[in-house]
Amino acid sequence: MCGVDTKMAQTKALILVGGYGTRLRPLTLSRPKPLVEFANKPMILHQIEALVTVGVREVILAVSYRAEQMEKEMSDEAKKLGVQLVFSHESEPLGTAGPLALAKHLLANEQNQPFFVLNSDIICEYPFKDLIAFHKSHGREGTIVVTKVEEPSKYGVVMYDEDTGRIESFIEKPQEFVSNKINAGIYILNPSVLDRIKLEPTSIEKEVFPFMAQDGQLYAFNLKGFWMDVGQPKDFLTGMCMYLTSLKTRSPTLLYSADGVVGNVLVDPTATIGEGCKIGPNVTIGPNVTVEDGACLRRCTILAGATVKSHTWLDSCIIGWRSVVGCWVRMENTTVLGEDVIVKDELYINGGQVLPHKSISTSVPDPQIIM
Amino acid sequence: MLKAVILIGGPSKGTRFRPLSLDVPKPLFPVAGLPVVQHHIDACYRLGQQRNSIPEDDCKSNVSKYCVAEVLLLGYYGDDELADFLLTATQSYPSLRIRYLREPDALGTAGGLYHFRDTILAPLSNNDGSESKQVQAFFVMNGDVCADFPLNEMLDMHFNNNSPQSQHQQKQPVLITVMATETTRQQSVHYGCMVVDKETNIIQHYVEKPSTFVSNTVNCGVYLCSPRLFDTIADIHLEMSNSNGNGIQQHTSSNKNNINQQQQQKPTEERVASAMVMWMEQDVLRRLAGESGSGCSSGGDGGSRIKKDAVCGGVALAATTRNWWSQLKTAGAAIYANRHYLALRQQRQRLLQRKSIDLPLPSPVKCRLATADPNGGYSTIGNVYVHPSAQVHPTALLGPNVSVGEGACIDQGVRIKESIVLQDAVIGQHSLVMHSIIGRRAKVGAWCRVEGSAACSDPNPNVAYAKMTPQLPLFNALDGRLNPSITILGCGVNVESEVVLLNSIVLPYKTLTRSYKNEIIL
């Protein structure tokens, strides 16, 4: 057992953090995407914590943008978790495979230990332990996690042998139903895979995996439980609902309960909630948030330091850091407020995406970006 | 002694006021806490009160002796529809005699007057029965006019021109004084346009809704008439019964192309059959205009079947005012009128408080109209009227320009602005209501948002003399969508919690379980 632990300690992980996170704007105009709090925790921390629990001690973050802010903010967390963060800077975007080639010197090892690769937007119950076991069991070059989705035609689907897990082919955006399993963006790969990747912008999904599948070197691991790519606001909220549901079964004590709370609600202990509010289902309230009397919040994420004033009604919103939402405001339909936005009293915002530091004083009845 | 006739029309009128006119006659729709026509009655009542209160030597006007003794509502609603109102109005204004005169048929504005000419001119006996007073003049007020009625000014102009001195100056007697207002060049063509002599105030030319610009001065639909006006109407009546319909046809066709015609013309046959349908505007004023003999050209009016050489025995004057004036044609206009009537009541109350002496209460209707209510405890902004029987939670915030009707219930944390909440309506906690009318017994759940467009047809505040836009159609001609309007919940509508309702009109007794935007919900 001790030997296994030593070997596990040498397992590394690479997280594809990537670029500007444009899909999650306006939030990512203020903070790099991995640092945006999902369920009151930076998105990337969910992944790092899960990696640490299976003994990963070194995580390589493949970044091309705002690395300094991330290094600064993550170093304390990393120390706490006893994990070493290594930043691999891309001077130009290298796609999903290129960063592996860039970090080749960090990933390759004499023991031929496999390493994890994760897309940073993925939220699920990370199955790293079972994934290693499965990967070791088939002994081939790579394993990718697959997940079942309702609308596979939006993604590339994975065709594989249900019994052995051996992947036969990938089909991009199938017009007719062929499979409902898609690439979940989580892999475990042997260092030998690095020989298949050149140091240039390359897509691992299109330019590496299909060839590995042809060679019979790629296996599929079926993910249990929920999965969501939370890289854009709509999915961020859907993912939050899934995460809170999963939290309810895994560790229900973390959820908040009080008068007027409906369903799964996560509230930071430093937040204050007024009287006569109706909170939930599926609401996350961050540190130092103030929710005044008589507010009604459903399917929302309220980020740190924000204020929601009295009698306001919010559904499917993300409220940016230190934003202030006035009294008798109604916001819905994936309205996203950037950092430090002020919404005046009595306004109606329907699907508004508001850039940081704006003050809104007229209603936005139809979805719109407010510069 | 004066009388006032208020023309209230009948059930077939006021269709543009739907769905609010579906369950209550439009003249009884409450604006600023009073039925629309009660503002007319109130103005007549206050006229008497003011004039009584002016000390004799203080009074520069020689007409201080005039006050309204009787108010006659004239229309073709069923008697039962107005019974309750007449009862409460009579109790509220004990010094006024208030009666309803029901037309046998829709007779037109002048036709109805003519039909009841004897009643209108009948002298009223004093309380002690000693001496009966003759009618010196009578007001005729269109029931859907909302205004700061300048009745004093009209009286002064009417009687000063009718005084013996002015007769000596070889002036013709005044048959009618028309309340007039200035409007913009563009908007004027939607009204009755008058060319008025600046010196004498005599109306030289009158045309109803011209297709081209005639004058900025328009008819407000409020008149002060001398009893002798009935002689003129009798002449017109005779002429119309004698004419065989040719002229009438021309007469109607002159307005045919105007879509927003104010009065629906009856088919020719019907007009001839009843032969009594006469309009103040097209028939009477048009004839009187230019009667001063001041040489104004009347030849241009080719469609006119009435010969201008007929002697009318008097002139028509225009009393032009800058007071607020509007018409209550559409439901949206109710919000606008509500705002102004509230402001007027507030002004009057302030005036009262300042004088705070032996002046009688200008309006006998008690209302809570204040910036902060000491008893209710709830907060207000600007002018707010809350019926004493309505319940408003202390955490609610009302105003500006809100009227809350009898028995209505406003729950905790509710916000209402620029709206009318009718009798027995219920607004659930934390809901917001703005630019809307909440119908009788309508129920709005918790955390709802009932919102109309901010007064889209309101006068442009940056244009002098601009009036409400009367011709705004319900639907956009380009894409067929509903034009932005106020939101209206009909009687008994039920809006479930957390629903948003934007620019929508909901017909009575609907239950809304989801949100609606820019829709009419049948």
Q: Please, could you describe this protein's structure?
A:
The complex is a heterodimer of chains A (about 375) and B (about 525). With about 375 residues, chain A is an alpha/beta fold. Chain A contains nine helices and 29 strands. In chain A, strands 14, 16, 17, 19, 21, 23, 24, 26, 27 and 29 form a ten-stranded parallel sheet that branches. A seven-stranded mixed sheet of chain A has the order 5-4-1-6-11-8-12. In chain A, strand 2 and strand 3 (about 40) form a beta hairpin. By secondary structure, chain B is α/β, with parallel strands linked by helices. The model of chain B is unreliable at about 55-65, about 245-275, about 295-310 and about 355-375 (pLDDT under 50). The interface of A and B includes residues 293, 294, 295, 327 and 365 of A.
Short description:
Chain A has 9 helices and 29 strands. Chain A has helices at residues 2-9, 43-53, 67-81, 98-102, 104-107, 128-138, 204-207, 209-214, 233-250; strands at 12-18, 37-38, 41-42, 58-63, 84-89, 115-119, 122-124, 142-148, 156-160, 167-172, 181-189, 218-222, 227-229, 265-267, 272-273, 278-279, 283-285, 290-291, 296-302, 307-308, 313-319, 324-325, 330-332, 335-337, 342-343, 348-350, 352-354, 359-360, 368-370.
The assigned structural class of chain B equals: alpha/beta
Kindly report the greatest chain-chain contact and the residue count on each side: A-B, 18 and 17 residues
Can you count the helices of chain A?
Answer: 9
Query: What's the count of strands of chain A?
Result: 29
Total helical segments of chain B: 12
Which ranges of chain A are low-confidence, i.e. pLDDT below 50, for 5 or more consecutive residues?
A: 1-9
Look at the structure and give the mean pLDDT of chain A: 89
Number of E strands of chain B = 35
Helix content of chain B: 10-25%
